[in-house]
Amino acid sequence: MTDxxxxxxxSAAENVFAAEExxxxxxxxxxxxxxxxxxxxxxxxRLRAAVREELTETRKN
Amino acid sequence: MALKIVPFEKAHVKEGFxxxxxxxxxxxxxxxxxxxxxGLAALFVAVDEGDNRIYGYYTLSNTGIxxxxxxxxxxxxxxxxxxxxxxxxxxxxVDQRAQRQGIGVRLLANAVIRSVSNASAWALMVVDAxxxxxxxxYRKFGFDSLEDDALHLFSPRKDLELLFIDAFxx
Lengths: 61, 170
Fold this sequence. Notes:
heterodimer, A: mainly alpha, 2 strands, B: alpha+beta, Aminopeptidase, seven-stranded mixed sheet, 5 helices, 7 strands, elongated
């Protein structure tokens, strides 16, 4: 975990993202969001492969 | 073409960028720099290491999801403060000359890496897809659409952190 944090974070400033307005959702979608946050984490293998490749590229630079 | 994905700098060449969506081209040309200076968005670009030309970009910003209109019992599961903190991947675009080369996937992965590395607290990553095709792209990578707005997609932070725990055994 620490490894990728060092690689990805070139500077603290890059990791403080700008502010933007809030998002308002319908009650139905807020319920969906609550369910999403309550369930156990899910692994997406396609995204994992992409992140691994990008970490390798990041290390080269 | 050797691409690196880095924070936007003045030396990067925006001219000639054409992703096929005029609003995304116009944003890069006219507004991205302003938004960065005003602190409204952080812009990251895929640039050719040789000539600094931009072949893709994405923007990240912090946002909040208002949860105050749902019943109190459910609200407690989301946030007792009213807003759920989130990171917004507002725009992602690839120049037509560089499309179908995996650059969009690299940009998304890079955005995930930077977001998970972000020191601030956030519970969800929110993606604004520009059309159904873009939404389908994000769904392939585990993002879920909402029922009332299929072009807003979400992924919980815990899902994205799992990518790294699984990769490094941490």
